[in-house]
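Sugar ABC transporter permease
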Amino acid sequence: MATTPVLGAPVVRQRRKPVAPYLLLIPAVAVLLLGLGYPVYWQVVTSFQEFGLKQQFGQPPTFAGLDNYARIFADDTAFAVVVRSVIFCLVNAGLTVALGLAFALLMRAVHGWVKVVIQVALLLAWATPVIAAVTVFRWLFNEQFGVVNWLLVRLGFDGFQGHVWTASPLSFFFVATLIIVWMSVPFVALSLFAGLTQVNDELLEAARIDGANKTQILWRIIMPLVRPVLAIVLLLQIIWDLRVFAQIRLLQDAGAPISETNLLGNFIFDLGMNRNNFGGAAAVSIFVLLLTIVLSAPYVRSLMKEDEA
């Protein structure tokens, strides 16, 4: 039954959404699709093909279906690499965020030239190239003239005389963790410090007047306020640490057992460049993409909930 409009009633007009912002986004979206979409498409297609050295010289690839995935992930070596990579990623991300938060709180507590010195030191560590950083750490942990072995021997640990840190997987990943955390802490510390500067000092002063101690202020006031920044940097660290390649590769060149120290990035490199199994390397690459999504999903979901709230 049709309704007749009431005389004198205001007419509600639905506002049109502006089209200009969407039109302005088209060039950026096109660049992203071209720069990111095509490589992902190539990886997906190649992961379902037999693509080896012959295909590099022009022979057409043959369709393999899920054979690359079945062949790679039925191997115990690939499973060990996945477990090793996930553990290494979570440990490094946790240590990096914890130390970054400690430095951010330290920079908020100190003033004057002390804060400037800390910030400059963090920026210098962050700006150091990967090759230079790994080279310095290789010198520090060198079995013949390294400072670390020399210092440990002087402290009474004679077993470290001529100790080769890259010979065993445990000590190898200890050195790798030091390098990666050392290079990643500055970004986390400066990002969290920027978040801490937004905490209202009047709110903290009111909490002190009400009798809250430093621990209560930290966990019940400061941490909830910087939780969005903390979640973002933790998410980024998980993504970056899962894709570590250069640091591990450069340390392996110092004489480490490659089969026992490979992470996912190095395993993909070994499959493609050393074994000429580009189809298998592409399959592992797609798995890494899916694994990154799985590990990142809880943090992305929590960020979206906070944004809606």
